[in-house]
Amino acid sequence: MASKSVLDFIQTADKNIDSLHSFMLVRHGNVVTEGWWGPYNAATKHELYSLSKSFTSTAVGLAIADGKFQLDDPVVKFFPDDVPADASPQLKAMQVRDLLTMSTGHESEPKVGLKEAWTKTFLSHPVSKEPGKHFLYNTPSTYMQSAIVQKQTGMTTYDYLKPRLFEPLGIEGATWGMSPQGVSLGGYGLSVRTEDIAKFGQLLLQKGAWNGQQLVPEEWVKAATSNQVSTGRDTKGDWGQGYGYQFWQCQGGNYRGDGAFGQYCIVLPKHDAVIAITSGVKDMQSVLTLVWEKIVPAFHAEALAADVVSERQLKDRLTSLTLATPTGTDGTNQWSSIDKKQFGFEKNPQELEGVSLERSGPGATTLVLKYNGEEQRLPCGFKEWKPAKLKLGSMPEQPVFVCGAWKSGSEFHAKLCLVETPFVISLKLAFQGDELVYDSESHVGFAQTKQHLVGRASTSK
Q1: Residue 453 belongs to what domain range?
Q2: Is it true that the peptide bond before 39 is cis, omega within 30 degrees of 0?
Q3: Cα 443 from chain centre
Q4: pTM value surpassing 0.85
Q5: Mind listing the pLDDT tens digit for each residue in 372-398?
Q6: What CA–CA distance (Å, rounded) separates 381 from 389?
Q7: At the N or C end, where does the chain have fewer CB atoms within 10 A?
Q8: Are residues 415 and 299 in the same domain?
Q9: Secondary structure of 410-460 in the HEC alphabet?
């Protein structure tokens, strides 16, 4: 491979894509290149979102190989108590195969909630089209696969995969969220490291074999990663190439599992290569396009002449990757009227009750956020990321890295990087006497990503 081309990929991504979190390239079974944009790192697991679906598909394949059920089994067979009395012929005709190919016959995606079992919600949702004919991206259909695996094996999908997939591949510390009914979420919720994504891709590239052992049946890998159904979209992009059993087809005869905001396991059989990427991007196609334009042309059949300069530049760049930190000053002269002054907010959807800044040493700042009556103290680095713990609303406490800078005499900017997720939150605190204008924005999100609050000083130092 041409080091110069890989370097070009990294530099272009740094310039045009906000933001990649990790990149690992494997060819002929060897790691060619790997890098993490700090504070993301090799040891920390990352939320996969819908890339989880490809792991669930693998569990289905293993369960079928174990004789637990069949591809053409009707879905209603597994949950008779959840099937509506007036079940339509289309619902009765829906098979496990249709769950895998996102061709369940639904015209809209079922919306699961807290009041009803998710399997019942799915089976109660109208099925107006003939299953197997109409592609509709449908995350609850992946949940149904996970529920079937659990029903037929007596284990959650995570527990079922652990000895059959995770342990043989050396995947440690993986976590998978569960539904209110105690079922692995299937369509999302799995968190693993970048290297684990690459191992999964390498297993697929090797047709299910690993260290001389056939972990997944070769026939299943071939079927799962082949084009099973048309996605009916513009064929110029990578979401219009077709769909397998929870795997997307790609340009150039490649395939991938992917997840929201740019989590990728890309397998390139013609080049004997795998690419694992985690990121937090709005435009997922931009990442794939960069792979096709910069990485794929760098593959060669024969060894290349050494390019010592490019190789050294690539190595240096990979070891110095970092997400951009706020620019400004350390605020040496800003503290006389700000230090420890507490600002409170009226009730708001984010449940943020108060904010204050504390000077904790020369050039050192502590950002204090108050949620549910509890203060969360976050050391805030200047031109560097500082580790902390953060608990937002009902979410569990999670690791976060924080940095900040003063943009002016009265405005402080901070970034909070939730390193086990794609989310980076930017804060702008504008102090105006006893008033604080608080603006926050997550650079990616499923719904509202911005928050604007105005607080008043409650107590002073």
Answers
A1: 342-459
A2: yes
A3: 14
A4: yes
A5: 888 999 999 999 999 999 987 777 899
A6: 14
A7: C
A8: no
A9: CEEEEEEECCCCCCEEEEEEEEECCEEEEEEEECCCCCCCEEEEEEEEEEC
